[in-house]
Amino acid sequence: MSINNVSELATHGAAGARIASELREAILTGDYAPGDRVRQEDLADRHGASRVPVREALRMLEAEGLVTLVANTGAWVSRVSLAECDEMYRIRERIEPLLLRYNVPLMDDALIDRLDRLATEMEDTEVEEFIALDREFHLSCYDLAPTRLLEETVLRLWNRTHSYRRAYMRIARTDPDRSVHHEHHLLVSAIRRRDLDEAERVLAGHIRRTRLELARHPDVFE
Amino acid sequence: MSINNVSELATHGAAGARIASELREAILTGDYAPGDRVRQEDLADRHGASRVPVREALRMLEAEGLVTLVANTGAWVSRVSLAECDEMYRIRERIEPLLLRYNVPLMDDALIDRLDRLATEMEDTEVEEFIALDREFHLSCYDLAPTRLLEETVLRLWNRTHSYRRAYMRIARTDPDRSVHHEHHLLVSAIRRRDLDEAERVLAGHIRRTRLELARHPDVFE
DNA sequence: AGCCGCTCTATTGCATCCAATACAACCCGA
DNA sequence: TCGGGTTGTATTGGATGCAATAGAGCGGCT
């Protein structure tokens, strides 16, 4: 552990962050499911590191709500109850429109066209691709303005519910919900007209409807 | 370091959390100011621990936004710019009314009376006491409902701006703002009538006005 | 004088080791 | 057969020591 430089130079001091980042990705892709145990040594071996940076990574993910730590016992991928999910969606209903408002004035036509294409493209996809495109669609609306805090808050809420959104889609796919796509196009339209109030309204309604849809499938939360 | 049990039994596995908790308190009381360096060994010595749990504590506080870490360099008590503070207040404007809505139905007369007394009591106080009473007034409105997430989010926003609220009060005390107290009493009144919409409106306006007041003193943020 | 590069030191990052804890399996007596 | 205590093992928590980095101070060159 001394002459591994040259290629991975300047990566010192980032082990914890790197591990956190990869574990976060693994949780989002579903490699780890809610409730799964996360053993420190596993992660350490997998990343060729010791348990020290692993524990740092776990603390970070705990703060993001993705992992739940119990002293002297271990770490688990966080479960989310229906009540908590409902709460997160209600928070999103309030702050995502605000974040959107910050961003709409900064969007150029190229971005709006891309949003439109995404909205159309995801109309006819399977679960995994829909999840990815929908996420890209919404988050693309949020990363223009320098509102680090709001953006981070929203991203954390998305991440914490990601697994459950996937689970919902798998279950509810029998009767696909077309109005989601309708709302996406309404949103793009409002953005294109730079109608901030209308964009806020459509987005809030979109999130609200999704929340109500989710609540109709409590089995997603075991 | 083995037979120190008996009195502090069962505190194993909580060193990081304890250190974080005390450092958080120190930042809130002003013992550490924004921009201050935080050396790991200092904290370790101060708490009779090694640097390992200290680093855990720093990661936790970083996630809360109270501390800023730079790899291979160190940790500082986070500074907040006027723009960021503005952003936090705008988030609060949106979600605190929601949190209040959750809680009002659970409040009993005793609590409402206490809020009224707090509102009156803080009308005639010096900076430190006002800060404390105001915080208690508002946070008391939030801890009845089991909305862990929303509560935690709001608490973090309060904590991140706490130092600046104090700094503002010290500077702006020359022309004390009476409408703050008026709004507090309006809020109590709406709560007592269980008028959820009005309570939301008053609270949003209260936060909004505070934001605008803060923006009139950019010097608070250096 | 001003600038570049070096050295030296304070501090952080991480690996290793040992202690403490939790949990499961087991034993034992009633 | 069941309950309570006990031992054993897997796993986490934390202390120590060493490597890596950043930044200040210094010296030499132009």
Structural account:
The structure is a homodimer of 222-residue chains. Chain A folds into 2 domains: 3-77, Arc Repressor Mutant, subunit A (Orthogonal Bundle); 82-221, Up-down Bundle (Four Helix Bundle (Hemerythrin (Met), subunit A)), CATH 1.20.120.530. By secondary structure, chain A is mainly α. Chain A has helices spanning 15-29, 40-46, 51-64, 82-103, 109-121, 127-140, 148-172, 179-192, 196-215; strands at residues 37-38, 67-70, 74-77. In chain A, helix 8 packs antiparallel against helix 9. Chain A contains 9 helices and 3 strands. The interface between A and B is medium-sized, with 31 and 31 residues. The structure holds a DNA duplex (30 and 30 nucleotides).
CATH class assignment of the largest domain in chain A: Mainly Alpha
Shape of chain A: globular
Tally the structural domains of chain A: 2
- Please name the fourth-level CATH homologous superfamily of the largest domain in chain A: GntR ligand-binding domain-like
User: What oligomerization state is this entry in?
Assistant: homodimer
Instruction: Give the neighbour order of strands across the main sheet of chain A.
Output: 1-3-2
Q: How large is the radius of gyration of chain A?
A: 19 Å
Terminal CA distance of chain A reads 45 Å
Question: Number of helical runs of chain A?
Answer: 9
The percentage helix of chain A is 55-70%
Mean pLDDT over the residues of chain A: 94
Query: What is the percentage of strand-forming residues of chain A?
Result: under 5%
Number of strand segments of chain A = 3
| Structural class label of chain A | mainly alpha
- Going by CATH, the architecture of the largest domain in chain A would be Up-down Bundle
CATH fold call of the largest domain in chain A = Four Helix Bundle (Hemerythrin (Met), subunit A)
What order do the helices and strands of chain A follow? HEHHEEHHHHHH
Task: Report the sheet with the most strands of chain A, covering strand number, pairing sense and barrel closure.
Answer: 3 strands, antiparallel
Q: Which chains make the largest contact? A: A-B, 31 and 31 residues
The low-confidence parts of chain A are 1-8
